Amino acid sequence: MDIILASQSPRRRELLERMGLAGFRVVSPDVDEHMEEDLPPAQLVCRLSQRKARAVREQVGDEGLIIAADTVVALDGAVLGKPADELAAFKMLSTLSGVRHQVYTGLTVLRGGEEHTEYEVTDVSFRELTQGEIEDYIRTGEPMDKAGAYGIQGYGALFISGIQGDYYNVMGLPVCRLGQLLETLGVHCMHLAAQRR
């Protein structure tokens, strides 16, 4: 089966491979990811993941299975996107210091005429951060292409005092939920992984 990941994210590629889905194609969706600020985070990520999946379907046709995802960080219901510059990154990280926030990922899977969209939410707690720590982190460059200005799989892990929910969701792909969704479509990840041993 032709499996297509509608994302250029190296983290999502890595997670699909970990799920046993080797040999998938990557097709970058040509979509406007402008956030509709009046939408709640869960609805926003679902809508953006649908937009990505449908855009890729227009590029490649109805053959195969398309997986698309979109992830945002939210604090008190307000969405924090990717920082536009270092000052924006500093403000975001200062706001997240010492508080719990949420990470939402919308997930859309298309196969033929079928479309399934779901979302996952994970609570993440930051310890109190000093100004120097935030400045050093920004100097690493890691925050600049990340929702909420941090990456849990990188240096940002040093700031995280707790997590409740799917760790991989914070990386940008809720692996457990995706695996269950694929199962309903006849794609059995554990079986695929076992066959490669």
UniProtKB/TrEMBL annotation:
<feature type="active site" description="Proton acceptor">
    <location>
        <position position="70"/>
    </location>
</feature>
<keyword id="KW-0378">Hydrolase</keyword>
<comment type="function">
    <text>Nucleoside triphosphate pyrophosphatase that hydrolyzes dTTP and UTP. May have a dual role in cell division arrest and in preventing the incorporation of modified nucleotides into cellular nucleic acids.</text>
</comment>
<dbReference type="Pfam" id="PF02545">
    <property type="entry name" value="Maf"/>
</dbReference>
<keyword id="KW-0963">Cytoplasm</keyword>
<dbReference type="GO" id="GO:0005737">
    <property type="term" value="C:cytoplasm"/>
</dbReference>
<protein>
    <recommendedName>
        <fullName>dTTP/UTP pyrophosphatase</fullName>
        <ecNumber>3.6.1.9</ecNumber>
    </recommendedName>
</protein>
<dbReference type="GO" id="GO:0047429">
    <property type="term" value="F:nucleoside triphosphate diphosphatase activity"/>
</dbReference>
<feature type="site" description="Important for substrate specificity">
    <location>
        <position position="71"/>
    </location>
</feature>
<dbReference type="InterPro" id="IPR029001">
    <property type="entry name" value="ITPase-like_fam"/>
</dbReference>
<keyword id="KW-0546">Nucleotide metabolism</keyword>
<dbReference type="GO" id="GO:0009117">
    <property type="term" value="P:nucleotide metabolic process"/>
</dbReference>
<dbReference type="InterPro" id="IPR003697">
    <property type="entry name" value="Maf-like"/>
</dbReference>
<feature type="site" description="Important for substrate specificity">
    <location>
        <position position="11"/>
    </location>
</feature>
<feature type="site" description="Important for substrate specificity">
    <location>
        <position position="153"/>
    </location>
</feature>
<comment type="similarity">
    <text>Belongs to the Maf family. YhdE subfamily.</text>
</comment>
